[in-house]
Amino acid sequence: MEEVLLLYRRTADGGRESDPLRLPLRAGKMLITSEVLSSPMPSVYSDAGYEMEIAGFPFPALTVINVSLDGRVIASGVVPLDPVKDASVEGAPVKLRLRREFSAAPFADVFGFAQLEIRFNAQDYSWVLDAFPPPLLVVYPDGPIYENLSRMGSYVCSHYGSFMAIGTRGAAEGEENKGRRLREREADRTRQTDSVRRRLEALRNLLNIFESQFPFFRSNARCKPVDRWESGPVERLREFSARTVNWIVEHPEELTPSAGPRTGIRFGGRNWLPRHTLVRTTARSRNIYEHQVIAGFLKDLEKRVTAEAALFESVLSGVSYGNEASADGRYRSSASAIIKLSARHLEDALAEFEAMKKRIRRACLSYAEALEIRDPKPIWPARATNIFLGIAPYRMLYEAMRAWHREPQLKLAEAEMLFTGFGRSRLYEYFCLFRMIEGIENLGWRFTEAQRCYYQAPGQGVDRAPDANTFLFVPGDGSQDRSIRVFYQPVISAGEHAGENDIGLVRVTNYSLTSETEEAASGRQLQPVANPYYTPDYLIELRVGPRRFWFIADAKYSKLRTVLEEETPSLVWKYLFSIRPSEENGRLEGLWLLCGNESARAEGVPRQRTLSPFVEGAPGLSCGPGFLLEAWDSEGVGQSLLAAIERLSREG
Fold this sequence. Notes:
With about 650 residues, the chain is an alpha+beta fold. It starts with a strand and ends with a helix.
């Protein structure tokens, strides 16, 4: 029996649905590819409870089983002993116990695809085995929460490639909107999967070489002498052979009486001479081995690229967007934005392949005509002849053809999607980050660079994520005395690791305000920590001349009221009481909490609420940093943070 994970959806009265969702386990994780999207996918409900079982395993008794979602263990179990045989019962289902925080709805925080990981451990940890079920499409009940998340998801997916790609942005000063267009073109390149991007880049390089060298081959292509027999005046006859006799016999109409009695061919009592006969001449032909290789290569290239374009078309025709996941339409796919982005990538790639096909077709016809190759046939591997190696244009084409044949074949199944699934909190973090970047641009700043810093603070490890986390902006007017940097998930540390990534803030205490002990009267208490560092979601540095102004922001996918009542004490302690500028010319401006839960609007809570009215009302006074809650959601973004940046950038 195969190993499967069984998911039973719980009913309203606490029972289970009769038919479980059967998920076969495999050794490797299944990538969310375009082929996968064109097939039916199992779905789970974000608002439903589930029971989990594993069946069909050959593992010994007392094997520990852990089920993880997004790196967090959500359920556990142990393979039991058979009370009679004192061994495991092979194939008997093992019920997994969900952790308390996931028991009501284990997929409630997943947006997109849920990818579970099953880890089997021997009780003594002598062996470990990982297994993976297929990805699960998470569906949400239709309503305001889904609409809010869906709009955020569409926004994040459409901007991710342009904002998070590491590199410089080359917008020229004074050219309105050029920066945005350049980023969009960069996104067109970066959003392609590695396999597709490499294939297209190899095709561009190859065609550029063939097109640039065509004028040489049209005018100066090498030739070879070729003997050719053709009809010509008898005066051109230099060699009389059996072929000549046969031609004369077959063309008696060419015979005329000879002027002399001893010349010509004696027949019927008279001498005859042909006006024309078959004569051998020497001509120059371009149909040589090297040209056959070149024309055959282009013909084969056209065939291959046509087949690859057809692959994209077939996948696109089968992609299901999964907007409705239930018969009555009450649930909708949270991965619609992800799937649409993937489909758009395929459409963009298909358009580029179609354009390449036209260029290849033109090159194929042009070279075949210029090189006098009527019916090109692929010839590879090709011999490294003296012509290919000794003449520069031939050598360029030969090396280009060799490089192309060394390129790996296009394998769409190996191209993982940009996104699979992520928690709503991470989605909201990206949403606020991208809104922040756009907001700074709208203030007249130019986004010029995105880089990655690998922080070494204790407890952080070495994060090798490929995305940018440091973003640089310069004034649109070209002035050199100001700049803005946005840090995503920076590390504000103490001790030897303070100041990484040129961050001018340090943590000044090793105490943290925690709520781990429920017996504490207030529910919170100060506890010392071994590795004192903080990682706010965002840190913004405004540099005006020698001065540096710092803004801390944290994204909370929650209601304003919930953040105010439950999270304010620890956040104020962390970011206002425990952090100070490390330089004399630095100043901490305050903390902004960005809240994104749509239900705040339904409750009539204001979209902005300041908790430091004295600082807000008298910014010229040295009252210390401010503290403000602000609603940032798919329907609007608060302006207080951006307004503070704009004001200080003018006033300094």
